[in-house]
Amino acid sequence: MSTDTQNDGDSGRLVMRPLNRLETVSEQVYAYVLLIPAAILLGFIAFYPLLNTLWFSLLGDDVFSPDPFGEFNGFGNYADLLAGEAQLPQQFLDVGLSGSFPFIEMGTPFLQQALFVTLAFAIISVLFETLIGFGQAYVIDQDFRGRRWVRVAIIIPYALPIVIQAMIFYLMFNPTIGWATDLMQAIGVFGDNPLASSRDSFFIVLVADIWKTSAFMALLILAGLQSVDRSLYDVAKVSGASPWQQFKYITFPIVLPALLVAMLFRTMDAMRIYGLVDATAGCEQVPSMTCLVITALQGSRRWATASAVAFLTAIVIGLLVIVYLIGLRGSEGGVA
Amino acid sequence: MSADDEHPDLAAMEQVQEPDLDRGPVEAWAAKMISNPDRAYRAMFYTATVFFLVTTLFPFYWLFMVAITPGRELSEVGALTPGGFDPTSFITIFTRLPFHRYVFNSFLIATVATVIVLFVASLAGYVFGRLRFRGKNALLLLVLVTSFFPPAAFFVPLNRLFNTQVAVLEPIMSEGTLYNTPYAIFIPVSAIFLPLSIFILMTFYSQIPDGLEDAARIEGTTRVGALFRVIVPLSAPGVATAGVLTFITVYNEYFFSSLMTDGRPENWAPMLEGILAFQGQYEVDFHLMAAASIVAVLPVAILVIVAQEKIVSGLTAGAVKE
Prior knowledge:
Chain A has 336 residues and is mainly α. Chain A has helices spanning 9-16, 27-34, 36-57, 76-83, 114-141, 147-155, 162-172, 180-186, 198-226, 231-238, 243-271, 275-279, 289-299, 303-335, and strands at 59-61, 69-72, 95-97, 104-106. The interface between A and B is large, with 103 and 106 residues.
C-alpha cells in the first residue's frame, strides 16, 4: 500500500541527510531526540510557567508597587484563601464551624464561593451532559435514512465557539430581547433581573453549557458505541432479548469505560470554566475558580493571590482525576 | 394500562372477541403498541430524535431571527419570529468593523497551531507509541499532568513573559514584546492542546504492525522517513481526527484569545474580540453580534459537516477505546 510512496524518496534524500546521523544511534537516544520539540514547547509554555506560578503563589501581594510581588509569604496566600480571608470580591472557600445544626456556617453565600460554585457546576453539568449525550449518541448510532444529517445537527453545538454559545444564551435570557426570562419568570423560577442574580445566572450558565457539551459527550460515547461488535445484537435478538435488555447487558457494559473517560475529560473542563461565565453572566455573579484568578489579577493586581488560586484549582482537579482513575480501574476490573 | 401490560396477548384477544367495545384513540394506540413492542420502541426513537434535533438546532434558528431583525425593533423579537426583516446586518458587520479580519486572524491562528501540534505530536506520539526506552512512563505521566492545570495556572507567568521587552525581537515585533501578536495566542494554545493529540496519535501509531516499518527500513528508508512515509500515512484517520479536533478547539478557544491582545484587529485580535466589539460605547448592537456570530461559526460548521464521519471513526479506532 503506502510503502509505494517511498519511490519518490530520491528527492527527499537531500533533506534527510542531516537526519542520517540518527540512523546509528540507539533507540533510547533516538526517542529522546524525537521528543525535543515536544519538550521545548511544553517546557517553555507549561512546565516553566507552572513552576513560576508555584513560586509566585508563595510570595506576598504588593498592590501599589510596579512589581506586584512582595516578600516571601510561605503558604500565607493559601491559608487566607482556604479561610475565606483573601482580599478579593469573592472568596475561594469561606466555611466556618458552628455549634448548631448543620454545624457548618457559610461566611459568604454558597454561590459566591468559588470552590462550591465550580464543584456544583461541574457535578450538575456533567451529570446532565452524560445522560443527554448518551441519549443523543444512542439515536445517532442507529441506522436510518438521513442519519448523516441528524448526526451533523446533533454534533454541531460542540464545534461552536464559546463566545457565540455565550452570546446566544445571553441574548435569550436578556430581559428586553430574549423570551426565556419571561418564560422562567412565568413559572416562578427566576427573579426580576436574572443576569444580576447569582442563582439565576448560575442556571443560565448551566443550561448553556449542557446545551453545547452534551454534543461532545455524544461524540465520545458514539465512538464507544461504534466499537460494539454488531453480531452480539444478532445473538441477543435470536435469544429473544428486548431492546432494553440488549442495552443493559451488551451496550452499557461495553461502553462504560469510554463513558468514564468522556466524563473525566468533561469534569476537568467543567472545573476550568471561564469563557462562558465571562461572556454571559460575568465573574461577579458566578465566580468560578478560573474567574477568581482573573478577578484577582485584573481587578486588584493581586498576582500572588491569583497564582495561589490557580494552583488550588489544579490541586482540586487533580484530586477529582484521582477519584475517576480509581473508578475507572474498578469498572475495568468489573467488566473483564 | 397495567393489566394490558402484563397480558398483551389477552388484550389483543379481547379486542377480537368484543368488537363492540368502544375504545378511545389513545387506548387503541396503546393496545397497538403493547401488541407490537418494536413499534413502541420505534416511536420512542423518533420522538427522541425529533426532540434532540429541535433542542440543538433551535438556538441557531433563534440567533438567525435576531440577526435579521433591524436594530430598533430588537425588543420585538419573539421566540419563533423576528421583530422585522433587515438582512443588511450581514453587510454592516463588515463595513462598520473589519470583521473579516478578525475571522482571518482566528483562522490563521488555528491553522498554525494545528500544524505545530500535528508535527510535534506526531514525533512524540511515535516515540510513546512505538519505541521502548527508559523513563517512558514517567515522561508520559508528566505530559498527562500538564493537562490537569487550568489555563489560568499558565497565564500569570506567560502574561509577564509575553509583555517583557526582548531586544532581539524589536526589529520584527512592534515594541519588542509578544503581546498583540499571533504568537502570544498560538504558542500557548499549541502547548496546552498538545497532550490530547499526543494521546490520540500514540494509540494509532502503536496499532501499526512492526513488519511494515521494518520492510520500509530494509528498502533503505531512514528512520525519520519511515515515520513520515509509512506510519503517518497509515494512521491518516487518526491524524485527521487529531487535526480537526485541534483546529476546532483552538478556533473556539476563549481564555488566551481574550487576554493576549488588546482587541484591535490589526493587533491580531481573534474573532471573539470582533463579536464583542459590537458592544459599542453608546449602544449594544445585538443584531450585529448575532449576524457576526453566524458568519464566524461557518468555518467550523463546514468542517464538522465535511469531517464528522472521520472524527467519529477516528475516535472509535483510537483513544477512547483504551
